[in-house]
């Protein structure tokens, strides 16, 4: 029974990944249009679709924590990272996102950074069963995150 459940979960993750890959371009264009129209300052935009393998690892980690969820409930199937010049710019862009895009949820690691030092605002949206996360941070924080993210994942998910 367990093998069947894992196989079904793997298939769900693969389908979710394929669907998100198809929708990524739409979300990217929408976000870039928003940034260019309302923010009008320099920024960099990184994005990705969480792989089916990474979804499976995150689901297993959640089960270990006692939180059983379905793959489509993962909050960051599509992830965007918007990096801006300064902390003042993070606040400005965050206010625009909150006022104009109306996220379902916000996680404030900007005012209260994580113990690892991660400092950003995270915004969550959902469309067509695809959950999207937008992270807003400084360019300096983005460089640090990019340098340390793989090691963080290895420790957190034991991969």
What does this molecule look like?
Helices cover 53% and strands 21% of the residues. The protein has 159 residues and is an alpha+beta fold. It has one domain (2-157): Beta Polymerase, domain 2 (2-Layer Sandwich), CATH 3.30.460.10. A 5-stranded mixed sheet has the order 1-2-5-4-3. Helix 1 crosses helix 2. The radius of gyration is 16 Å and the shape is globular. It starts with a helix and ends with a helix. The mean pLDDT is 92.
Short description, anyone?
The chain is α+β, with helices and mostly antiparallel strands and 159 residues long. The chain has helices at 2-39, 52-64, 87-101, 139-157, and strands at 44-49, 78-84, 105-108, 121-127, 130-138.
Rounded Rg: 16 Å
CATH homologous superfamily assignment: Beta Polymerase, domain 2
| Spatial strand sequence of the major β-sheet | 1-2-5-4-3
Question: What percent of residues are in strands?
Answer: 15-25%
Order of helices and strands: HEHEHEEEH
Overall body shape: globular
- Biggest pleated sheet: 5 strands, mixed
- For the record, give the distance between the C-alpha atoms at the N and C termini, rounded to a whole number: 25 Å
Q: What is the name of the CATH architecture?
A: 2-Layer Sandwich
* Average predicted confidence as pLDDT: 92
For this structure, the CATH topology is: Beta Polymerase, domain 2
Number of helices: 4
Class of secondary structure makeup: alpha+beta
Number of strands: 5
The stretches of 5 or more residues where confidence is low (pLDDT under 50) are none
Q: Give the fraction of residues assigned to helices.
A: 40-55%
The count of domains is 1
The CATH class is identified as Alpha Beta
């Amino acid at each position: 029974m367990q093998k069947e459940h894992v196989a079904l979960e793997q298939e769900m993750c693969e389908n979710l990944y394929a669907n998100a890959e198809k929708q990524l371009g739409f979300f990217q264009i929408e976000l870039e249009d928003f940034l260019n129209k309302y923010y009008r300052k320099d920024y960099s935009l990184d994005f990705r679709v969480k792989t089916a393998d990474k979804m499976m690892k995150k689901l297993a980690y959640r089960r270990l924590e006692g939180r059983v969820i379905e793959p489509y409930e993962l909050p960051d199937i599509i992830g965007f990272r918007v990096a801006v010049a300064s902390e003042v710019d993070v606040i400005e862009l965050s206010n625009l996102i909150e006022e104009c895009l109306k996220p379902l949820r916000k996680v404030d690691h900007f005012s209260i950074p994580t113990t690892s030092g991660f400092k950003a605002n995270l915004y969550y949206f959902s469309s067509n069963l695809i959950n999207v996360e937008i992270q807003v941070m400084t360019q300096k924080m983005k460089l640090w995150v990019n340098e340390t993210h793989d090691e963080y994942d290895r420790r957190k998910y034991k991969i």
